[in-house]
Amino acid sequence: MRTLAGVDGCRRGWIAAIERGPSDAGLAVSSDFSALLAALPRDALVVVDMPIGLPERIGGGGRSAERAVAPLLGRRRSSLFPIPARAAVEAWDGPHPDEAGRAAAHRRASSLARAASKPPRGVSRQGFMLFPKILEIDRLLRAEPGLCDRVFESHPEAAFAVLNRGSAMTHAKKRMGRPHAPGLEERRAVLRSHALALGLLAAPRPAGAGEDDRIDACAMLLVARAIAAGRACPHPQPLQRDAHGIPVAIWLPSAAL
Q: Is the pTM of this model over 0.85?
């Protein structure tokens, strides 16, 4: 069986839910995305909850990928951060050890984002804080274009809506920055209904990753299963690419899953 991995960002870097076979699944955490890939077989299929592909200009609502999946999200639509044009993301020139440096970089990024979007739109603080991880993957894919054939973008809340037969999750995963038990259990129930290895949810959580990170990585693993089985599709269709040839698409299981 081909190794599959679902990956989400976390405080320590990246958490991966890895499936090597029907009875061989586990969790791993890495501070570096390239190191995470290097620890997997060279043909491993990886689905990550992080924007991939950065267009030069942006329309209303973010990249075409975000616009395509937004209708699926219902009350969870706020989980989808519109990602700006490449120039704005590359304005992150960190690391920024203090708040003043982050604020200045955020202002630069927002100015560039407004100049490259129609209607003009700045950058949310939540979206801005994703930029280092977005660039980490972007630089890796530009250096090794062949990885685009096995590293895919998805979005947990959109995936949960599809896996839940078209219904978005009722509860949030967090409230006021804290884990929200009804939302976490609602998502665990969906994961269990799709035969996720129970050990992935029951195993001790790696240090540096939250329970919501673990659950999102597991959702990405189910998307990886669907892609490997030929039962997933990109949003939007047809698949689009940025100026560097990197796909701009959120992959989700098909309704037939």
A: yes
